[in-house]
Design goal:
The chain is of the alpha+beta class. The protein folds into two domains: 145 residues, no CATH class; 151 residues, Heat Shock Protein 90. Helix content is 61%, strand content 12%. The chain is built from nine helices and seven strands; from the N terminus they run ααααααβαββαββαββ. A five-stranded mixed β-sheet has the order 2-4-5-7-6. β4 and β5 form a beta hairpin.
């Protein structure tokens, strides 16, 4: 018995080392390992009471493991082998059947049955719980993969729509630019009105630039580049909200932290978050809009915070899905947060939106790039 237990110990140590090197093993190897265990159990039982040893319930543990871990043929073979091994104990040690009639042996036998049952039940629970946890993890991974595939399809459809929209809007925007220029010249003696006409020209020019970028991205996707995220965010805010009615305050603790980004894609995501925050703050009569940049060991966190009207709890989980918006009809399409989430995924990061007690935080997490010499 000592030799058998020692051999099992050595075999399990070798198997654990093999598993550390290679996380998966073939059905045949698993089945053979279980068959060796069954043979070892049979040999031990043969010298400890034969079929009357209550630990014969351990056969069921190996049958259950085989049913879950290996193919039907191998598991059926192990089940048949276990039944045959139990029968062999009856044949090889027939005298053991009468041992429990000896004084005091029956109580010992019942106590052994209880202990064997407890051991088998505990092992089965542990193994089944591990299998269920693995299945839940796999199901979550498959669900996330399906969602990623759906997001990719939607983004492709949006790209096609954007390219068509850019093509169709070129002509009316060109007409608006010409008319705005003529209007500005005709209002030379009215400075206030001319300033408004010049503002129209600037906005039309901005729209044309956006459409031009959309067409160029459709033809040639933007290549990622390393940027110092703190300084880069400050530049984005300065260029987009220099004269905004609701100013944006930048708090950066990571001016020299680097990230690898598609600059225009991420810029649009940040501008979308800031536009949402400014609208919410303006609706509540508040002027506190802040973007914070924090650098941790392996990631950078961008947080846009406002103290505006907040987001209803029942709507919060749906924001980020296409065409879901908090704005009134005609004021937004519900694509901003969806594109922000897509931009985060494209950069290997994540996006989380929270809203509590009138404080809304949009948190964009990006992997931190290594500093080059």
């Amino acid at each position: 018995m000592g030799l058998i237990l020692g051999a099992l110990l050595v075999a399990n140590v070798l198997l654990l080392r093999a598993l550390r090197r290679k996380r998966t093993i073939a059905d045949r190897s698993i089945a053979l390992n279980l068959l060796v265990d069954t043979a070892a159990i049979t040999a031990i039982l043969l010298w400890t009471g034969g079929a009357m040893n209550p630990f014969t319930t351990l056969y069921l543990l190996h049958v259950a493991l085989a049913a879950v871990l290996v193919s039907r043929a191998w598991s059926l073979g192990l089940a048949v082998g276990s039944v045959g091994a139990f029968g062999a104990l009856l044949v090889l040690r027939p005298e053991a059947v009468h041992v429990w009639h000896a004084p005091g042996m029956f109580l010992l036998h019942v106590l052994g049955m209880w202990l064997a049952f407890a051991l088998t039940a505990g092992c089965l629970w542990y193994f089944t719980d591990r299998v269920n946890a693995s299945l839940r993890s796999r199901e979550a991974e498959l669900t996330e993969a399906r969602l990623d595939a759906e997001r990719a399809e939607r983004l492709a459809a949006l790209g096609t729509l954007a390219a068509g929209t850019a093509h169709e809007l070129n002509t009316p925007l060109g007409t608006m630019a010409i008319l705005a220029s003529e209007l500005s010249e005709s209002l030379a003696d009215r400075p206030d009105a001319r300033a408004q006409a010049d503002r129209i020209r600037a906005e039309v020019k901005r729209c044309a630039a956006i459409l031009s970028r959309m067409r160029s991205h459709e033809q040639s996707p933007e290549e990622p580049a390393r940027v110092a995220v703190g300084r880069w965010v400050a530049e984005v805010v300065a260029s987009s909200y220099e004269h905004a009615s609701v100013p944006v305050r930048v708090v950066s603790e990571a001016r020299d932290a680097w990230v690898l980004v598609r600059s225009e894609t991420l810029r649009q995501a940040i501008v979308s978050l800031l536009d949402n925050a400014r609208l919410a703050a303006a609706a509540a009569g508040d002027e506190r809009v802040e973007v914070r940049v924090e650098a941790l060991e392996n990631r950078v966190i961008l947080t846009v915070e406002d103290h505006g009207v907040g987001i209803a709890p029942e709507l919060l989980p749906r924001l980020g899905q296409p065409f879901v918006t908090t704005r009134a009809p005609g004021e937004g399409m519900g694509l901003g947060l969806y594109l922000v989430r897509a931009a985060a995924a494209q950069h290997g990061g994540s996006f989380v939106l929270t809203s509590e007690r009138g404080v809304t935080r949009a948190t964009l997490t990006l992997p931190r790039a290594a500093v080059t010499a």
